[in-house]
Amino acid sequence: LLKRGYRPLVAATLRIPIVVGLVSLAGAMAALVALSLFGRSFLPEFNEGSLNIAAATAPGTSLDTSNATVRRLEKYLVEHPAVSSVIRSTGRAERDEHAMDVNFSELEVGLDLKGRDREELLAEIREQSATIPGLAVTVGQPISHRIEHLVSGVRASLVFKIYGEDLDQLRGLARQAEVAMKKVPGLVDVTVEQQTEIPQIVVLPRGTETASFGKTPGELAGFVETALTGSKVGTYFERGRVYDVVARLPREYASLPDKIALVPVDSGGARFTELGSIASITKTLGPNLINHENGQRRIYVTANVSGRDIRGAAEEVLRVTRDGVPLPPGYRSDLGGQFESEASARRTILILSGVAIFGIVALLFVAFRSLRDALIVLFNLPLALVGGAAAVYLGGGILSIASLVGFITLFGIAARNGIMMVTHYRQLLDEGEQRREAVLHGSLDRLVPILMTALTAAIALIPIVLAAGEPGNEIQAPMAAVILGGLVSSTLLNLLVIPPLFSRFGSGRRHLLNA
Q1: CB within 8 A of 86, min separation 6: which ones?
Q2: Higher-scoring residue by pLDDT: 477, 162
């Protein structure tokens, strides 16, 4: 075309890729703004192929009653076609790291979905659990449950904590928060921490009578503790094993005030009297549990998130509790859970992304000794961002932490393609070729390597993207989708935009039309 005198047509044709590049840059910036304003980021939910179901009856429920209640849920799970196994444990030993009373049961459920939708199965389990009177159920997963314990101290994705002094007031506020949180779309398993009044026997020393008998209130409390709960008095050896010898009264004394009043109390082995003569013994109600955090009494409401991003759910919970749960003076609340880890991870990734881009610019400048050439290579980053943002949009519009990691990986791949082309252009120029021939020759030389590397990576990523939703693929699939989308856009736009950009703005004073 140049030889035949069509210089204006050639100039106009060369402007097209530059315009495409600028439009892509504008689109990338718009995608960034849209993701920042409307996108939601979250930690991807694990799909472990099994469930961990916490089932709790009312505090103080006997072992037999707790077994009978939870057995109804267990029977339903065993008969479900998508369940392969069910293991249940009720209660935990006193010295266990997470000691639980017999009103608490934990079910480990193995799944064999056979093409069934996992979310539908969870909805069916929750619906069936709601039909069992007196049973509060939280559906989670084994590893996720332990992570949630580490993050917030409870087995749920979100926990709304209320702090104050009066337990009755705290329970009332927690019930108000429960009602408000149940109105938030996507929240499931909304449950108030089990705090209730249970029967208690109070032994209160009468000062005058106790002193006349020669006992202090502390000594009398120690005696009652030994009599009712037991105290180690010796050690017993049998067949190489050591057993503690504990002295206490029979169990029935601990629940009958009349019998406790008849317990004999001695004073140095010289005087004896009945416990009821020097202390008042009454049966009353008291809290089954008093939790403290940072020196304040605390109660919490827990919830899991299903079908939406956890950060959006957390923001809506804060809004509805602020409007629907007015706190009296001296009371405060806060919201914890996995979204805190997500926010921390996102901040870290954004900071490291900035450091990485700065490092790329610095290394390119050192390598090329030209800021213009370094910026031309960096032009690949917004070109890659276009495809990555499109992949996020097609995947539901939710920007997960895995997606952010995918963008960082994608930027490295995109920068590599630009480096391959610009480096070869500069090499050909150093060998004496004219700019036009160097750009055309260099682009043809790098066409096959760039397409082959991109195609190889894409073929490897496609199975991971198609396996989205399968157990163990929660991190890989969103990351692979972003990389795959960015590979497509950056590879095509790189071959279309970088050559005319280098010919017009690259190192050297002459561009293609003047060569």
Answers
A1: 74, 77, 78, 107, 108, 109, 110
A2: 162
